[in-house]
Design goal:
homotetramer; six-stranded mixed β-sheet; three-stranded antiparallel β-sheet; 17% strand; binds manganese (II) ion; metalloprotease (chains A, B, C, D); metal-binding (chains A, B, C, D); Xaa-Pro aminopeptidase (chains A, B, C, D)
Chain lengths: 453, 453, 453, 453
């Protein structure tokens, strides 16, 4: 079997000690209002291990005392009448064929879980993720414990599957990398379309609509996260998602948006002038952020770390802010005192994968946890964002000419043996490139919706 | 104060008996994956009564033993640091000014709820809606009951607020009708754009993308429900939302989609030929559904009911199916035996409002509930859908020439003193109109994205 | 049918409005440690209405829209194997015969509750009593609400059964009065035996053992509450139940103990000298408490109230404390200022019945609750305790000669048409009677365990 | 520090791996009815490790990454006003002095638990014991996981403390053995008193009362389990606790009762003739059970096991039943087929200690669990019961002369280096001894309540 999901399950099973059972849940549909639901999005771990798209499913992986492993997918039964109303279901038989995992009906979940747990030493699941699953696992264990003479067959340990799964997911396999490149490519196209569409007088949500539309037309029906489109000072609110203000001539606009492709996230931020031309101050700060990003990107390679890349970024930022007079004093002392931090309060980047803020420890594997440390050494196969920014809200302690400027430049980067590959390099980010693209006629062939003509 | 929400709160308070407290919750953000959330959508009742858009808020309405009423909105506090990260918040003070309701901090919710309940005879909330709210209300009541000497101050009755609120929401006020017309208009435009865009070889999700985009460009950022775009036989699955098949030459495609505008839903279905031309069989069945819809629409007027409109619809459908040879036997006997029902298994329509399947009893106010009955007499101000259909899946017991055809035609209708107003009349539904629109060039001025040029 | 429980159910059903369902649970066995349980004690309301002694049972009373009522007892099934291990069970069939209530298996509880609730307007249960029952009732209602087309058949109101049941239980019927007299008689005998047994050097728990033994030998196997046996200063701790100190020559000992007979409580307190002779100070204070009790008892009659009896009691106490020099100042001012209250911080008495602190409002039926008020007018059939006390711990602000004295005298009193009947008059309470009884030889015939010789 | 509880905590801490936290809860008072509680009985594990007698307390044991251990007792604060009403409390300060454990207020439990857990690899508690504790521990872990940057400080494993504690409790230390001997001695005296008291016409509950009384007079206020007093056929119901039948001339009566002394259980069963004289059939069966018990007792020694003792017991029983004609066929085949099992369906005995069915595996330490196996090798310091029985209910397939006879003889036995010590040998069990004791005059000096004269 050469399905990537099957290989991932094998890798996970290889990590589990003998006499273990691991349970991963797909999750359930969530109500949006009354009898309507949000579009279902499977739990990332479940999706990673199965690619099975339906809600209400469970994956049970077991390894017995002799080290023999088994897999079981529990899913909804076929039900002709319900399917006419609610949509098609695979059912266990078809699921087994199509997804290559032994399958049974979710209606037997209590019995199947009890059978899988009985006599196993360790029960593995992701701690803290899913209260309903926890209740269910507790009920199953309690059933064993209260069955006469079987009490001692209940698992004696519960272990957090999170670190194991996070470690696996941290290093992307070839299949994942190709999907992530696709997510990045679609999102990059969408960002370019939004840049071209932008004009003073438009609404922030219209740029969001443009981005969503370009992605959806390619089959990326949902965003990886709620898009941020912030004109002017709105860019200084890091997770601004109202997107309901008018875009004004003379302001910058910051777009932080990425689509989800087959469950994988892209996460791109670009900042550009609403009217297509950077002002002097905008250009000065923008160039500074770009320089900082380039300095950080230079540090994305095997053996480096977020800590080192962050250092490089802050060095450039501090120098620039000092040069521009926003920071005053002795440069080395400013660097030492982390004086640039109030102007970029967020971190340089994060792991990227099935989740936009993807799982994976920021610290060395097996190290004693150290709150806040990001000294994990980069290895080929890791994917991360590099996203320095500068935010100067109105009223802050600078020359007012800088006020109301918020800038962030974010790319998605794969660590490779040679260094890194920028998955989102297709979106312009130099001042010249941006101004050139925005000067083009949006109805120009090859732009807009053209990709599906 | 002439805000419509204030008037609605007054109408609700007028319905509550003396010595009552009513609690309505806004709901909470829901996790989509890991640390990302679905876009927050306030609880419909809460939104109806407040127009306050933030999560984690509560509305408390009280009427004391003397009949004196009071209102209190509990909401999140201002928090400069959190707002930089998570977005702006009103805070109680600003909420009070802007929304015209006395407000306090949600951090005091336990104390405020206890204070509001103490000494009240009846506690009103929507039964079965919100488990977290129920727990909280129970905890508050238990706090009163276990306070020495105060036990008897806990409410002695819990009453379902649902019927009262449903009755209010069933009759739309002028403000609501204008919003619903806007939702309908935006959605109608979007349907027309999708019709024009459609071509064999496109994907179902691309028509969905088109619809969502047209709505979002007008500011309707979210659909009222997950769009159904079903080509060919997919149309026979009532809530088909995968939308991931190719649209084939010779097939029909059914689109059931509507946007949400200021919380209000539109709900439009149109069915049209992928290639722009109905085949003979498609045309025969389509005309039949359209005739049935027109017959039903003729019954939408004060004094009529869903029951009567459904009768009219089924009469036309049965006659037509009999005429086409799909139903065989004596016509009157077929009507009597409800022989058309297997071909249209869903009901004729539903209330429409803040929810796509809106609240409101389908039976006379105050009547003993009668499962399935829909004999509520129409009154001006009610809004409803009229959506007959015919579904002939492959393999069913008819001439194979009919197989794989699923048709539904749905409009949104306001009952008026004179009869009704069709809010979604702008989308073509005759065969001639549809074929004409689809023959137009999609790049024709005034179409496509032109509305924001 | 002339069973008293049947009559009580009828009285309760008569109080319920049409279209109601009431649910009363027996409760469950509670674990004492590991796999041992405390002796099961049925919920008082359930016992009052059924006299059915097993755990895990439910009583469902319904009144339909036409006012027709029905009763259903759900109980454990017969199970030969389990009964060999765990004890005999009635099973529904035998329960029906023996207890005169239609019965079915508790294994059908979800279905039976749903059936009973469906279409009823009001669901009645005791609010705040039983979290497990509440969950179950919520699940049943939710099942109805989420059954297609049945949503409106779920009850629209939940009403507190507590006030209705409390009102019924407040007025004891003839069967109850005879059982309460029996509880009082057994407990009175036990108190006399303890008085006779008492000697310096004994342990407090030995007097408790004596009381429990005398009751148990009469078939009253369990106390109505945990006995208080407090020598010397221990009497000043109101619910002292350690009972593990030595009884010292020269001290008083306070015994507050009563048995449970067929579910009904006795509640008697006597205070007497460990060595059989009151000291001067003990006698002075004892006589004062006794006078206060007699004054209060004189107020126990139809038309009076706890408020009036308390007034009489405090008047005597204040006069006495003033006379003894413990309270100083002007008598009327002391009374006005409730100056005696710090010396008797508890209230004069409480309702008595199936619970030692029995249910029943202390305020007029139907009045707006007034925290702390005890102005319910006495009626024939009410049973209550009258239990003034005085407590002078060491170190308090009095002449040290009074220190370490705690006294309470408590009788159980039935309000009759003529005034009252003291159910516990058989236990001596004058100084002379007590000293005489304690001077008798405990091995005297007719005492000790003689009752079963 | 030479307190036994301190040594036990040290032994437990020695078993815990580095970077562990263990939590043990005292439990809470449980409601008997309305506002009365059952007498509080601390959780056995908590009592074993602390001897702290109050409810609502927690013990937290930690071992950090360096192997440094710490102890913390959380208990109720002093509260003068509450203590007057509800009884005295130690409060942290006094608890620390008196019980020799660092103590703090239970009001800080969330913070103290979080602090103790943070950064620990493993969280240990007894799985399945205490749902409220589980919720609390989950809440604490979730608090850590959702604190920014601290997520990884939450324990990654939850481990069952039960096996560790059970193993410790299985081997009684000297302090425990002395307490268990005291429990056994008190209970033995009580059984003798009941034998002497017994006469035809008495009620079963009166023998129970006698047993409870004799124990309580010695300070053993509570039974270790609900006493079984079964006359005649009632003896065939293993956990018959109604105890409400008359004791009839000619019947046997079975008493299974034992007191609790300082938390430790005795568990004695004796069976004797109500009228003081065994009939021929009663004597034949009684002698058989006694012989079986003696055969089993001979196997209670280091190196043996329940399995071996059970074999010896069943061999004697089978031979005897064969001899008496109750079992027919070839003796060896009967033994092979376990033909005696239907006449003694329960097992031969169980561990005894703080719980009557005490904790401790019945299988070798560290072995893979094998349901039902009892092959744990006896070691000095183990305490167990040996309790063969024979039960011949009416209507079963034997000569009717045997009907209605139920017999069990149970002693409590300490395994010693030399073999065993019978802690309950003081209660007569030969036919001759029993008949002699029952022939004595119960008012004979030295009997009855004499022990406290
Ligand atoms: Mn990012
Ligand atoms: Mn519809
Ligand atoms: Mn009392
Ligand atoms: Mn035993």
């Amino acid at each position: 079997m050469n399905r990537p999901q099957a290989e991932r399950r094998q890798r996970l099973l290889a990590e589990l000690p003998a006499s273990s059972v691991a349970v991963i849940a797909a999750g359930h549909e969530q109500t949006r209002s009354r009898d309507t639901e949000y579009p279902f999005r499977p739990n990332s771990d479940f999706w990673y291990l199965t690619a099975f798209p339906e809600p209400d499913a469970l994956l049970i992986l077991t390894k017995d005392a002799a080290g023999q492993s088994a897999e079981l997918l529990l899913c909804r039964d076929k039900d002709v009448e319900k399917e006419v109303w609610q949509g098609r279901r695979f059912g266990p038989e078809q699921a087994e064929q199509q997804f290559g995992i032994a399958a049974a009906s979710i209606s037997e979940q209590q019995a199947q879980l009890v059978a899988a747990m009985k006599g196993k030493q360790q029960l593995w699941f992701c701690f803290g993720d899913d209260e309903a699953l926890l209740s269910q696992l507790n009920a199953c264990q309690q059933q064993i414990r209260t069955t006469p003479r079987q009490s001692e067959l209940a698992p004696q340990q519960q272990c957090n599957l999170r670190p194991l799964l996070s470690e696996l997911r941290l290093l992307k396999d070839a299949h994942e990398i190709s999907l992530m490149q696709q997510a990045a490519t679609i999102s990059a196209d969408a960002h370019k379309a939004a840049m071209q569409l932008c004009q003073p007088g438009m609404q922030e949500y219209q740029l969001e609509a443009c981005i969503l539309h370009h992605s959806a037309m390619q089959g990326a029906r949902y965003p990886a996260y709620n898009a941020i489109v912030g004109g002017g000072e709105n860019a200084c609110i890091l997770h601004y998602t109202e997107n309901n203000a008018e875009l004004c001539d003379g302001d910058l606009v910051l777009i932080d948006a990425g689509c989800e492709w087959q469950g994988y996230a892209a996460d791109i931020t670009r900042t550009f002038p609403v009217n297509g031309r950077f002002s002097t101050e905008q250009a000065a700060l923008y160039q500074l952020v770009l320089d900082a990003q380039l300095a950080a990107l230079a540090e994305i390679k095997p053996g480096s770390s977020f800590a080192l890349a962050t250092q490089a970024c802050y060095r450039v930022l501090t120098e620039g802010l000092h040069r521009l007079g926003i920071l005053q004093g002795e440069l080395d002392a400013l660097i030492e005192a982390e004086a640039a931090k109030p102007w970029m309060i967020h971190s340089l980047g994060h792991w990227l994968g099935l989740d936009v803020h993807d799982v994976g420890s920021y610290q060395p594997k097996g190290a004693v946890p150290e709150p806040g440390a990001k000294n994990r050494v980069f290895e080929p196969g890791m994917v991360l964002t590099v996203e320095p920014g500068l935010y100067i809200p109105k009223g802050c302690d600078t020359d007012p000419k800088w006020w109301g400027i918020g800038i962030r430049i974010e790319d998605d980067v794969l660590v490779t043996a040679e260094g890194h590959r920028n998955l989102t390099a297709a979106v312009p980010k130099t001042i010249a490139e941006i101004e050139a693209l925005m000067a083009q006629d949006a109805s120009d062939p090859g732009q807009g919706h053209g990709q599906f003509d």
